[in-house]
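Hey, I'm writing a tutorial for new members on how sequence and structure tokens pair up, and I'd like a real worked example in the thread rather than a made-up one. If someone can provide the structure for the chain below, I'll link this post from the tutorial.
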Amino acid sequence: MKNLKALFCGLCLLLAPALQAQDWTLKSPATQPSVRGGHAMASIGGDQVLLFGGQNAGFGLSNETWVYDLSDNTWTLKSPATQPSARSGHAMASIGGDQVLLFGGIDAGGKDDETWVYDLSDNTWTLKSQATRPLARNRHAMASLGGDQVLLFGGEAAEITPADDETWIYDLSDNTWTLKNPITKPGVLANHAMVSLGGGQVLLFGGGVLSTFYDDTWVYDLSDNAWTLKNPAMNPLARIAHAMASLNGDQLLLFGGLDAGFSLSNETWVYDLSDNTWTLQSPTTQPSARSRSAMASLGGGQVLLFGWNDGSSDDETWVYTAMPPVKPFIFLANKITLKRTQQSTPGGDMHSNGALTIEKGDPSIYHSNLTAVGEITIQKDNTINGDVTSATSISNSGTINGTPSVEPVATEPLPSLSYSAGGQNKTVPQNGTLSLAPGSYNNVTLNSFGTLQLASGDYYFTSLQYNSSTTTTAVIEIDLSSGAPITLNVVSNLYLGKEIEIRLLPNGEGDSELVTFNTLQSSAVSFGKEAYLLGSFNAPNAEVTLAKNSQLRGAMCVKELLVERDCLFLHHDSPGSLPGPGNLPKPSLEEEEVSSDQSTVISYQLEQNYPNPFNPSTVISFQLPVNSDVTLSVFNTNGQLVKQVARGNFASGRHTLVWDATDAHGERVASGVYLCRLRAGAFVAQRKLALMR
């Protein structure tokens, strides 16, 4: 069965102002904490969360220490030798690495002023002692300031009625609590919530005192010891006893609470510091209305929620998954290489965390802004209708109809993905149709002229393959009539061969932003020649090839990207439209796979090119006993790479390609002896080629 741990960080989807929910998922671990509320949770490294204490359905206090691990959906009861007393109303916050700080709460003896640190590495609670510390209190809030510092604000203090407005910072490095005195700050508060926004900033929302509830949004900045009252145009209703946790960057999630009318809430809100907006989300599934639950970040846009109170107590474990703030890039990779194209309207901004190279044009025109952390190389016969910005250097032999500049460029993170799949194998019959509901599957295979029918929702596949020959096609048909998105999560092998078509119903490419393909594989990904692709494609661990004469409406976020000759690509938001499956004009063929025979072969082989000697082109043939990641390259006799003729995942069988005696820049090479080298998995073979002009 699936075990979702999809950490979507930096997905290249439609540019949007706020996070788009992937919904709440009710997890069903075999063992879990008992019903409780008033407990505290905090991130404790990776995708783990620490839970301590709380009050059970019979109002008894707990001193249990639990750790939730998303990777295997387990709650583990820890049994440290020493631990805090049973309590509720305490606060916890991550304090670096796999450590968590706990302060205060109310136990059998009343309100507490103890400072404890839990260390997951050795499963220990350590009581820290300081000369100066906050007064004993409960229903306060804490959040990480980064490093080994934590911010504490407010609460119901032992000697102050009814609440407190002090700002304290704990520093683990010297075990000190420091009372800060910002000029402006929130009023006395309890039952509020705080979340780290990163960069030494913390957000506070809501809370109350006696029967007065607040809807204020405050941000504390450590750099200038200042609380700033934010005034978003819209915000959640005033409330207490809600839960909040960090999502991505400077965004956070809020759920539930008790509003001023003493009604329980089941609203899901997202706050974005970058534009000071609260956005009410509309997940299709969510927890029931509740207060005094706890939430903590699992990293990468996921949040864990556990516990009470929905009116009858609760022990449910929920995980919220969100799409991150999105980038308007059609291509985002650590390295991008584009070969020449005669298509007239490729468009969409591109970003490389390394080098970005546009090889000799045909001539070629790109309606794109280009950014790269590494060097940007634009070879001759290319026109860039956009700005070109590199943090390193720009080598331009083409035309830039925008502003070229060398200035700092930030690295854009690739998606961080993690999930699993399993279930039945499914096969789309030749000339047939197979419909699959959202869910988890093992290996799904499309055969020639087959149609795989899917619908909005989440799919998990161990592999999703269409291994085409030169004369067939296949269709992945997706029903998006509900308006909800679809995500296809592949574990080990996403292979969509020649003339694959992604068909979206009822609106065609206009709904491309609703479609996401993810793959965890580190083996090469190749989208077959003349493919028609709609959606966002994320392969953060793989080298990806968009094969010749392919069409893309959407985005690709991958480790490395090679766009072969004569492809047409448009971002979700780019004007214009694609010609449609099979309708892309095909320029004259030079290097191309001129034949492919999927009859059974039993060994790897690189055949001698023909003719040899040759002028101006030669045929290179090879055979594969199994589907293989293939690199076919030509070197000179000094061992220098002249050209990479082919790279990608090839089906088993015999393959024939043509080399037109040009280098990587499209320039004709001189007469002489060259070496053709085939790498297919662990197999390596080499042949000599003789060019005679």
